[in-house]
Amino acid sequence: MELLRLQKVKDGKYLKNYELTYLNKKGNEKVYEIVSRNEIPNVESIGNRVSGVSIVAYCGDRMLLLREFRMGVNHDVYNLCAGMIEEGESIEECIQRELYEETGLHVKKILQILKPSFAAVAFSDVKTQIAFVEVEGEFEDHTSENEKITARFYKKEEVLELLETEEFSSRAQIAAYFFAAGSNYIKKCCPDIDKS
User: Fold this and answer.
1) What's the pTM?
2) Are 75 and 69 in contact (CB under 8 A)?
């Protein structure tokens, strides 16, 4: 597979649409469509820029989950606190700002920030980072008039129930699953997994 060229076909306010022309494994030219949050000047620039962060937040033995309306699916889903990095902002500053804007909470401690990963490899070069943080404070609504977000802490038992009954973004579903059932469930289902 060889990517030959790209062409911007639409320049939206938040997303840019591109057509990528490539040679498939039989040597035939094919066209593939992607969207990006970034301006992509050439083939070598695809997927190079980190554009946002997703925040897995804990307060004691509880996990923060947002229930928010997402236009792309036209209903509420459970999600992580997340957002785009603003020009000149560090990842740490972005974490603090997004957490405060979406929940009113403050970062008590950043536990770990994972290296950048791709959010939707089937159709986008969007690259984000996942941050694990301890939070504190009281919930306050600082969201814009274009957002509908309800933030709450959940205990493991509550998260397990939500996983059975509610819809999630995939990143929130994975984080919630490992918070609530993670290593104990894996050990129960696959007892030989730790054996060498």
Assistant:
1) 0.88
2) yes
